[in-house]
C-alpha cells in the first residue's frame, strides 16, 4: 500500500509533441524550412502616431477691423437718416399748425374789424375792415357806395361798438382753392351816446378765409347770421 501510494504521488513525465515548420512533410535532405520572424515595430516616445496637430490659424485682423468700421458707418448713417426724417416731419407739423392758426387769427380779426368802431375813428375802422377782405365779400362792399353807406349808418347811431371773440375753431381747409372755413363766436356790446351799454349780443359766424400765392390771408366770405349757409 505504501509503495502504491508513493508511486501515485510521483509526478508523471510529460510527453513532448513533435513540431515541425510549415511546409511539405517530406522535404529535401539538407533543406531547412523558412522560419517566420516578426520584428517589433519601434514606437517613438511622445505624441501617438496618427494624431496630426495643425498650427492655429491666425485671424485676419485687418479684415475684421474693416468690417467693423463699415458696420459702424452704416449704423451711423441709418441713425442720421432717421433723425433727419423725424426733424422733417416735426418741422412740417409745426408749419401746418402755424398755417392753421393764421387762418383762425385772420377770421377772428375780420369779425372784430366788422363789429368794432367808435364815432371818432369810423373812417379808419371801416377802411381797415374793407382792406382785410377779398373775393365775394370784397365785391359786395365795393358795389355802388356800400362803403360810404356803412360809414353813414355808424355815424347815425351816434354810438360805439366793441366786439370780443369768445371762441374760434378751424372747421376745414380747401387746399385746392386755398380757402379755410373757421367758426367764430363773438359777443358785441353797443354803447349809446349817453355812455350806456346795451345788453351784449352773441353771434356765431362761419368766416371763409382765403390764402393767396404769397401766403397773405384775407376774409373771403361771411355766412351770417349764426353761421348759416
Q: What is the β-strand count?
A: 4
CATH topology title of the domain at 76-223? Nuclear Transport Factor 2, Chain: A
Largest sheet: 4 strands, antiparallel
CATH class of the domain at 76-223: Alpha Beta
Secondary structure: helix percent: 40-55%
The CATH architecture designation of the domain at 76-223 is Roll
Number of alpha- plus pi-helical segments: 5
Supply the helix-strand structural class. Answer: alpha+beta
The strand line-up of the biggest sheet is 1-2-3-4
How far from one another are the termini? Answer: 156 Å
CATH homology-level superfamily of the domain at 76-223: VirB8 protein
Which percent range describes the beta-strand content?
Answer: 15-25%
What value does the average pLDDT take?
80
Structural overview:
Residues 1-38 are annotated as: Disordered. The protein is α+β, with helices and mostly antiparallel strands and 229 residues long. The protein has a domain at 76-223: VirB8 protein (Nuclear Transport Factor 2, Chain: A, Roll). 41% of the residues lie in helices and 20% in strands. It has helices at 2-9, 61-115, 122-131, 135-142, 146-157; strands spanning 160-174, 179-191, 201-211, 217-223. A hairpin with a 4-residue loop joins strand 1 (160-174) and strand 2 (179-191). Helix 3 (122-131) runs antiparallel to helix 5 (146-157). The longest helix is centred in the middle third of the chain and has 55 residues, at 61-115. The chain is rod-shaped. The model has no long low-confidence stretch (mean pLDDT 80).
